[in-house]
């Protein structure tokens, strides 16, 4: 039985893109499900744009997503001699020929073909001249069939192909002796014994030429599977200018690896009505049959929903470790691991769609000085709130135990002292006083997390703030 082998072949010209990450995940999941191998090849032959730091960023993004690969990383730039040997093999077998046509003459021939109603392909001037290596500056072209369908059964799109008469003989080696992309890809895939090529639908245009190269080199064709493109909410292809497309950026924004993997794999793939998929689930369930043909819409709201789901699933230690860098950034200093902070993070699970949001919501616990929300101050720290805050402060100073039950009783007592004032009328001024804003977990949990000493201090500061505003209003 043939061992299934897939590959991911990114170019190190930028960070790991969302579409590339999905290609990697599909290849990884298919190989793991089939008990096969998943290979990684860096296509770094574009020397002007390839960068070592981008290669490391791609590898780091793969590791963060949990996608491991088999064997050493292969770099295409180190295989040039093998690519040139393949060109020599094709020349020797007659499947390729040298072409010394100038660019001007090639373009003129294409224009004549277009004027005659043809597809505008190379006119084959050098096809049968049998030019030798001493013919001067020349390219090398693949000799394609002059007619007939070059087709394949795509594992996603079904019967696919193109008539050879619409293509013309394609260049596989430039005049400077550099092998072109299509030749290098095919030779590498042959040598790596890749059995399944799973990639974006934008590569369908390359497929006919690449399959012709497999045939010319006498190699068995792999199974081709082209997956639909990813589009944004407006149905447009994802753009770096309009959309978040970098895996690293998603991580910096506080998305969990589990959520991003789950979201990415569902961009064009499904299995019944299932919504949640771990990497382990994919090892047991992923199949090419589950890939659709329509463009896959990247819905940010769906990602947030998934992320919140996985945030809720984390145990306390794991959650703290993952949110810690964001807490540290929010606090502007190292953060201590305390029971109160652990308690707050647990309370914030229901309110947080990202780790960054969780850290932001925890700001009042992380910093000693509050950043007051001016709108909340105007709405809730009005003169009418002063006697309420003073009453809460007075009773809070002598509360027997700073726990939720005792704090609840404290608020009941304050309510009774103010003509059975509703809880919300007490809670909101107190919440703004101790957190600086109108949103936090339940007021009793919030006060317990902050602690008695800090709560009393913040109540005193809020009372002073209200008194100052009252005085200013009198002067005005």
Describe the structure in your own words.
- This protein is mainly α.
- It folds into four domains: 5-72 and 230-300, HUPs (Rossmann fold, 3-Layer(aba) Sandwich); 77-227, HUPs (Rossmann fold, 3-Layer(aba) Sandwich); 316-366; 374-475, Arc Repressor Mutant, subunit A, CATH 1.10.10.350.
- The chain has 20 helices and twelve strands.
- It has helices spanning 18-33, 52-65, 80-93, 103-115, 181-191, 204-216, 247-252, 257-265, 279-285, 300-313, 316-331, 339-348, 355-361, 363-366, 374-380, 386-396, 404-417, 423-435, 443-450, 452-475; strands at 5-8, 37-42, 74-75, 96-99, 139-142, 149-154, 158-163, 171-173, 196-200, 223-227, 230-231, 296-297.
- The strands form five sheets. Strands 1-2-3 form a three-stranded parallel β-sheet, covered by helices on one side. Strands 4-5-8 form a three-stranded antiparallel β-sheet. A two-stranded antiparallel ribbon has the order 6-7.
- Strand 2 (37-42), helix 2 (52-65) and strand 3 form a beta-alpha-beta unit.
- The longest helix has 24 residues, at 452-475.
- It is elongated.
What would a concise description of this structure say?
With 476 residues, the chain is mostly helical. It has four domains: 5-72 and 230-300, HUPs (Rossmann fold, 3-Layer(aba) Sandwich), CATH 3.40.50; 77-227, HUPs (Rossmann fold), CATH 3.40.50.620; 316-366; 374-475, Arc Repressor Mutant, subunit A (Orthogonal Bundle). The protein has helices spanning 18-33, 52-65, 80-93, 103-115, 181-191, 204-216, 247-252, 257-265, 279-285, 300-313, 316-331, 339-348, 355-361, 363-366, 374-380, 386-396, 404-417, 423-435, 443-450, 452-475, and strands at residues 5-8, 37-42, 74-75, 96-99, 139-142, 149-154, 158-163, 171-173, 196-200, 223-227, 230-231, 296-297.
């Amino acid at each position: 039985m043939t061992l299934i082998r897939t590959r991911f072949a990114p170019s190190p010209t930028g960070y790991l893109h969302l579409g590339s990450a999905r290609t990697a995940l599909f290849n990884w999941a298919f190989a793991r499900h089939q008990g096969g191998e998943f290979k990684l090849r860096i296509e770094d032959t574009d020397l002007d744009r390839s960068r070592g730091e981008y290669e490391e960023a791609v590898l780091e993004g793969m590791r963060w997503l949990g996608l491991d690969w088999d064997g050493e990383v292969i770099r295409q730039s180190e295989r040039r001699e093998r690519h040139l040997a393949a060109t020599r093999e094709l020349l020797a077998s007659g499947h390729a020929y040298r072409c010394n046509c100038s660019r001007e003459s090639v373009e003129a021939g294409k224009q004549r073909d277009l004027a005659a109603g043809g597809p505008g392909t190379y006119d084959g001037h050098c096809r049968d001249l049998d030019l030798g290596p001493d013919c001067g500056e020349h390219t090398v072209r693949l000799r394609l069939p002059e007619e007939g369908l070059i087709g394949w059964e795509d594992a996603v799109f079904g019967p696919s192909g193109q008539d050879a008469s619409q293509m013309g003989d394609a260049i596989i080696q430039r005049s400077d002796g550099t092998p072109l992309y299509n030749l290098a890809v095919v030779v590498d895939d042959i040598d790596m014994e890749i059995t399944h090529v799973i990639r974006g639908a934008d590569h369908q245009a390359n497929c006919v030429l690449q399959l012709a190269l497999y045939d010319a080199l006498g190699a068995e064709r792999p199974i081709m599977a082209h997956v639909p493109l990813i589009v944004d909410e407006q149905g447009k292809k994802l753009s770096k200018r309009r959309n978040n497309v970098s895996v690293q950026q998603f991580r910096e924004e506080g998305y969990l690896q589990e959520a991003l993997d789950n979201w990415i794999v569902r961009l064009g793939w499904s299995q019944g009505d299932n919504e949640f998929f771990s990497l382990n689930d994919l090892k047991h369930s992923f199949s090419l049959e589950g890939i659709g043909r329509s463009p896959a819409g990247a819905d940010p709201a769906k990602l947030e929903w998934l992320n919140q789901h996985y945030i809720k699933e984390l145990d306390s230690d794991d959650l703290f470790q993952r949110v810690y860098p964001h807490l540290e950034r929010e606090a502007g200093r190292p953060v201590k691991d305390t029971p109160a902070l652990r308690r707050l993070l647990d309370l914030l699970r229901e309110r947080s769609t990202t780790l960054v949001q969780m850290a932001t919501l925890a700001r009042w616990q992380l910093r000693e000085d509050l950043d007051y929300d001016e709108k909340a101050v105007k709405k809730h720290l009005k003169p009418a709130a002063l006697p309420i805050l003073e009453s809460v402060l007075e009773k809070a100073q002598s509360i027997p135990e700073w726990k939720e039950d005792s704090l609840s009783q404290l608020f009941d007592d304050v309510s009774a002292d103010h003509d059975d004032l509703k809880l919300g009328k007490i809670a909101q001024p107190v919440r703004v006083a101790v957190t600086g804003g109108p949103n936090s977990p339940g007021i009793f949990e919030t006060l317990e997390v902050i602690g008695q000493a800090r709560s009393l201090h913040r109540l005193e500061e809020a009372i002073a703030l209200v008194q100052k505003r009252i005085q200013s209003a009198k002067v005005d």
